[in-house]
């Protein structure tokens, strides 16, 4: 699957570039594409430098948590739920606790902690994989839920809007919550249908319904806060949770007689090894994405969408927000650039900018997640992971647009 996808990126880019040259007379497109190859290779190294430090730090703390038994406690508590959703993972397996920590970090917008936890979980799942080059059902479900990325506190989106002079940076808070919830639900349902997971089993509902009620109550509470209070709570809750995890790991480790310093160094060494093996996968995926974007293929897709929307008589304001949606599956940095460009050209509180911000917060960067998580364990056959993740991303984009028309239309 990944071989076909990667090849398809380059073939699509080549066709698009030829069209720009032969039909549009833009011969410089080939120079731009070659430049993009080297730029994406450089970006891959820059991303890896950040990942080296982040992975080394957090896998060090996670090793303390493992030796202190924190991960095992989480795994035992969630064993009945994951026995239905991931039947091939044994009850009490360390991967279950690591996945829980990853989901919690994602929900709070703690990307720098979520990725190392997720990679650790993926490696734990890989230990159960009978075919090391092919993704298992459990790995696919985990990746899709990561790609859909349920986020309760999208602090980075607030920051972008504040930098561009928005009167109320948190105006998109509730629309993002609704859109990211739709994305996660779509991803879970898509995988459940393909893998025939028993979502309506009483045990599954006993876990998921209380979580949904708590999330709903939390959303309702946050909507009563002022913009200033919400922004302050977002920053405080995220940083407090992050530091509290560190302190808890260390204190519980010391209480359980774990040599915390030695455990940290042991885990940090593992983080260094993990990061080192990711670079080839990142270079491969980011270079393909860069060529696809600079070839003009995404621009052609955007104009085609605008023409179709006009033809059926629908409102076209949302089309100006679609550059963010079209590049989001491929490149997080490109999506951020598109979001900021939309804010600057359309106005930070224009409908297009509000829709683009909601889209940006609704999902993760699918192909980046795919390259990092599967690349970390050497998986080459993704099976239905790409289709389910892209379906979740599409659901997030559609929900974001619909919600924005409801709130700002």
From TrEMBL:
Residues 51-158, 276-379 form the Nucleoside transporter/FeoB GTPase Gate domain. The chain crosses the membrane at residues 43-62, 140-160, 172-194, 206-230, 237-258, 278-302, 388-408. It comes from the Bacteria. Keywords: Membrane, Transmembrane, Transmembrane helix. InterPro entries: Gate_dom, SpmA_SpmB, SpmB. One of its GO terms (cellular component) is plasma membrane. This is Spore maturation protein SpmA. It comes from Acidovorax temperans.
């Amino acid at each position: 699957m990944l071989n076909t996808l990667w090849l398809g990126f380059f073939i699509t880019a080549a066709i698009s570039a030829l069209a720009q040259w032969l039909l549009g007379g833009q011969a410089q497109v080939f120079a731009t594409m070659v430049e993009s190859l080297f730029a994406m290779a450089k970006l891959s190294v820059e991303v890896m430098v950040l990942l080296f430090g982040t992975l080394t730090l957090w896998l060090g703390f996670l090793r303390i948590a493992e030796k202190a038994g924190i991960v095992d406690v989480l795994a035992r508590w969630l064993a009945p739920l994951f026995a239905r959703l991931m039947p091939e993972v044994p009850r009490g397996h360390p991967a279950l606790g690591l996945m829980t920590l990853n989901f919690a970090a994602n929900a709070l917008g703690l990307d720098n902690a979520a990725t190392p936890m997720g990679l650790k979980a993926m490696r734990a799942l890989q230990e159960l994989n009978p075919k090391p080059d092919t993704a298992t059902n459990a790995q696919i479900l985990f990746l899709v839920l990561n790609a859909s990325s349920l986020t309760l506190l999208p602090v980075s989106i607030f920051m972008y809007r504040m930098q561009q002079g928005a009167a109320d940076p948190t105006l998109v808070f509730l629309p993002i919550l609704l859109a990211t919830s739709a994305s996660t639900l779509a991803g879970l349902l898509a995988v459940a249908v393909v893998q025939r997971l028993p979502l309506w089993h009483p045990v599954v509902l006993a876990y998921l319904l209380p979580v949904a009620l708590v999330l709903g109550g939390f959303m309702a509470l946050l909507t009563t806060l002022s913009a200033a209070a919400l922004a302050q709570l977002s920053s405080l809750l995220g940083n407090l949770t992050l530091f509290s995890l560190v302190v808890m790991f260390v204190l519980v480790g010391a209480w359980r007689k774990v040599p915390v310093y030695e455990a940290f160094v042991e885990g940090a060494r593992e983080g260094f090894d993990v990061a080192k093996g990711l670079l080839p996968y990142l270079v491969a995926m980011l270079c393909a994405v860069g060529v696809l974007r600079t070839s003009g293929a995404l621009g052609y897709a955007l104009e085609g969408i605008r023409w179709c929307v006009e033809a059926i008589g629908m409102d076209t304001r949302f089309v100006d927000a679609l550059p963010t949606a079209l590049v989001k599956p491929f490149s997080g940095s490109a999506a951020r650039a598109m979001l900021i460009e939309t804010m600057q050209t359309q106005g930070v509180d224009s409908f297009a900018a509000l829709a683009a911000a909601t889209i940006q917060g609704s999902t993760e960067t699918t192909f980046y997640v795919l390259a990092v998580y599967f690349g970390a364990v050497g998986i080459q056959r993704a099976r239905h992971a790409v289709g389910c993740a892209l379906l979740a991303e599409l659901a997030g984009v559609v929900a974001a647009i619909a919600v924005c028309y409801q709130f700002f239309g």
